[in-house]
Amino acid sequence: MFDLGMVVRVKGYLTFRDVIGEQFYPFTEIEALTLNQLLDWLSSQLGQEFTDLVFDPQTNALSQHVSVLVNGRHYSHLPDKLDTRLQEGDEVSIFPPLAGG
């Protein structure tokens, strides 16, 4: 049996579904992976369309209009926010801005 290392599930919703879909990403030879590192890695793997959807073009920081959840919890409610270390089997969900009325 092969050791895939740490596997993280990434799901995109609504307009992000076409760019992200639902993927399982294995990370081998890595001791720790933060949410911020995962988002940067996804940007390098998925290209400019992902980057434009998720990051603010002025600051290159995560757009304030994008919701990122780790195992159902918004990253801003986690103690380490974007520096949260991901664990084997974690699910990261990415949502576009939602409008309501």
Short recap of the structure:
The protein has 101 residues and is of the alpha+beta class.
Description of the molecule:
This protein is of the alpha+beta class. The chain has a single domain (6-95), classed as Roll (Ubiquitin-like (UB roll)), CATH 3.10.20. 23% of the residues lie in helices and 24% in strands. The chain has three helices and five strands. The chain has helices spanning 17-20, 35-46, 48-54; strands at residues 6-12, 22-27, 67-70, 73-74, 91-95. The chain has a five-stranded mixed beta sheet. Strand 3 (67-70) and strand 4 form a beta hairpin. It is globular, with a radius of gyration of 13 Å. The mean pLDDT is 87.
Q: What are the defining features of this structure?
A:
single chain; globular; 3 helices; alpha+beta; 24% strand; 101 residues
